[in-house]
Design a protein that fits this description.
10 helices, 2 strands, 2 domains, mainly alpha, two-stranded antiparallel ribbon
């Protein structure tokens, strides 16, 4: 039996959901799209970077991959600002442009998590895992948050374990696992 410690479940989950993992996309070649990518990858959340990404989308010729990646990157910056609905629109655009870009799905799932739409996040996160993402530990971590929101502690535990296995130096899944007690029946 796997369960979270009593009293920590909902409060810790709300804190954890605020810390969903975001997956940015590397765009190279110079220009505003690359600057947008660098901002997303470095953890920026200032509105000026959303404007920068918008300028790249409006004014630069981008390959479908770079266009979708720039939508993802702008969405990631919006996620960090707590603008979940706006970020979701960017991830929707990215999926339309490049339906095989896993990062668009994992981030759309993260936006759903931010809105506490646990069940709605799962198809996107599962699709991201199926397609593959550059940082799969983030997808498993986010899916664990969704499972925990759905009171499926066993699935959450195993996904936190998988995230830690994939990225052993990442503290977030280790901290989440510390809240669990495991007993055998």
């Amino acid at each position: 039996m796997i369960r979270t410690w009593a009293g920590l479940g909902v409060a810790a989950l709300i804190v954890a959901a605020a810390g969903t993992a975001h997956a940015a996309v590397t765009v190279i070649g110079g220009g505003l799209a690359q600057a947008c990518s660098e901002a997303a990858l470095s953890g920026e959340n200032d509105l000026k970077f959303v404007t920068l990404c918008t300028a790249a989308l409006d004014g630069e010729f981008l390959s479908p991959r770079d266009k979708a990646g720039t939508y993802v990157n702008r969405g990631v910056i919006k996620l960090r600002r707590g603008a979940y609905a706006e970020a979701t629109k960017d991830f929707d655009y990215a999926v339309r442009v490049k339906p095989d870009m896993g990062e668009a799905y994992v981030n759309r799932g993260a936006a759903s998590l931010g809105l506490h739409h646990w069940a709605q996040s799962l198809p996107d996160i599962n699709k991201a895992i199926e397609l593959g993402v550059q940082e799969p530990a983030k997808a498993y971590y986010n899916r664990a948050l969704a499972y925990e929101g759905l009171d499926d502690a066993k699935s959450a535990y195993f996904d936190y374990q998988k995230a830690l296995e994939l990225q052993p130096d990442w503290d977030a899944p280790r901290e989440q696992l510390a809240r669990f007690s495991v007993s055998h029946r």
